[in-house]
Amino acid sequence: MIAIIDYNMGNLRSVENAFNKIGTETKIVKDPEKLINFDKVILPGVGAFGDAMKHLQSSGMKEAINNYAKSGKPMLGVCLGMQLLFESSEEFGSHKGLGLIEGEVKAFDTSKFQIPLKVPHMGWNDIIVKESPLFHGLPKNFYLYFVHSFHVVCDEKFVIGSTHYGYDFPSAVQKENIYGFQPHPEKSHENGLKILQNFTEL
To answer: Do residues 51 and 9 lie in contact, with contact meaning Cβ atoms separated by under 8 Å?
Structure first.
């Protein structure tokens, strides 16, 4: 059974519906004490980093997520959920994250863009991937759906997928049993559903 964490910041139904399409049962979980009972966990997220961390802290879900990460069972952060896995973010100030992966979240540096591009980065873009069980059955380069103004900066050893928007940035990461995707697999049609299917089979 897969838990989808509810902390008042995620597009829960969209994620739930995507798993329904691949015939995988999920449960939306708000009680932090129940999280450890699940085989896998999804940390979704839409909104501001600082607000999200406040919700996780006040609900007790922050501690529950950290304990779950130590269990060795697979966890997947999506969009803001991926960013929360890291140590800090500069979005609307300076905020501490979950610290499960070393790195930080920064705004797109438009001064590095060779041509004018709009921020947020919104729409379909390609991801170039490394070897990972999440990409089984997919090509080395395929398209996913993005909506974000901030991105992760981390050591290359954690990067399993990268995307170019003005410059290259990490769009998929992994540290041991912890995975993260900046794009939205649940909104990315067949490619996204294949990633979610592969996650269920970890």
So the answer is: yes
What is the enclosing helix (H) or strand (E) of 54?
helix 49-59
Cα–Cα dist 45/49, whole Å: 9
- pTM comes to 0.96
- Alpha-carbon span 74 to 176, nearest angstrom: 9
Q: Decide if 164 is catalytic.
A: no
Could you list the pLDDT tens digit for every one of the 202 residues in the chain?
999 999 988 779 999 999 999 999 999 999 999 999 999 999 999 999 999 999 999 999 999 999 999 999 999 999 999 999 999 999 999 999 999 999 999 999 999 999 999 999 999 999 999 999 999 999 999 999 999 999 999 999 999 999 999 999 999 999 999 999 999 999 999 999 999 999 999 9
Side-chain half-sphere of 173: how many Cα atoms within 13 Å? 29
* Residue 91 is among the residues annotated as catalytic for this protein: no
Amino acid at 69: A
Task: Please return the burial class of 50, using the count of CB atoms within 10 Å of its CB with bins 0-12, 13-18 and 19+.
Answer: middle
Write down the catalytic residue from 55, 148, 151, 184.
184
The catalytically annotated residue of 79, 91, 148, 151 is 79
What domains, with CATH codes, occur in the chain? 2-200 (3.40.50.880)
Contacts of 164 (CB under 8 A, 6+ apart): 125, 126
Q: Specify whether 184 is catalytic.
A: yes
Q: How many of the other CB atoms lie within 10 Å of CB of 60?
A: 13
